[in-house]
Amino acid sequence: MVRRPAPGRAAALCRGGGGIVAIHAAADSHYDWPWYGRMIGGRFAQHPPGTPEADVTRTPHRHPATDGLPDHFRIADEWYGFGDLSTDLDHLLTFDPQSIGAKDVNPKPLAWAHRVGKGRVFYTGLGHRKESWADARVLAHVGGALDWATGRAKAPAMVVIDEAATRVREAPPHGRIGMGTAWRITDRVPRRTMEFRRRTLDKGAAIGVHRIDHDEVYQLLSGEGDVTSDGVTRRVSAGTTVYLYAGAAVGIAQRGARPLALTIAYPLAVPAR
Fold first, then answer.
1. Total Cβ atoms within 10 A of residue 270
2. Which of 44, 151, 259, 272 could covalently link to 27 via disulfide, CB atoms 3.0 to 4.6 Å apart?
3. How far apart, in whole angstroms, are the C-alpha atoms of residue 107 and residue 93?
4. pLDDT (tens digit per residue) in 122-140
């Protein structure tokens, strides 16, 4: 049985910056209370019979409720479909309806988080079966949600990197044209959402032209070279920064007598584990 809190108290909790963790049937309740549906983020619409196993996928959104989960896993539960989903949700988990015999090919929302006023609201559709509460994945999922909702979840303070320890001699990527030195600065940073590199291209070396699926930044530190983006080439030198756009075919080649040194930064499509 789901107990209905006093509307004023629940609203005050969100307005004051409190947190709510809502589990499974919390979305199947209080249909005469519109604010409650908006607070949860969606309304139960239907579910198929039984508690079959389904394929669950973690979305790219980084969140304490999913940091401890694998990218993909199978689990048994009662699989809700939802209506009236809010547009401001950070979707955290989805499930594949075909994995439980449905014809729909589109992933279905399973867990999400959003802000209501100053408050934090988390919802998961997992948790129907009593066996779920002995499953380490569900416990990590809900435990992370509680940390986030209560404000206990903290980002790591920082990662300090000794660049010298990341230094390798290697041929540049995308064509292996010539040789160079790479400082793979962020390779070992957990949970990162961006990549940061320093490279020196020896004389005649180049990062070959390749299509990028994210924006990218080249910052020239010393030497000079030719940057190409979709067939347009510009000579660049120390003190120059080049912003390159997703979808372009880009590359950079060393020119002149000195090696070309630059930093390269770009976002990751999925946060690193």
1. 12
2. 44
3. 9
4. 999 999 999 999 999 999 9
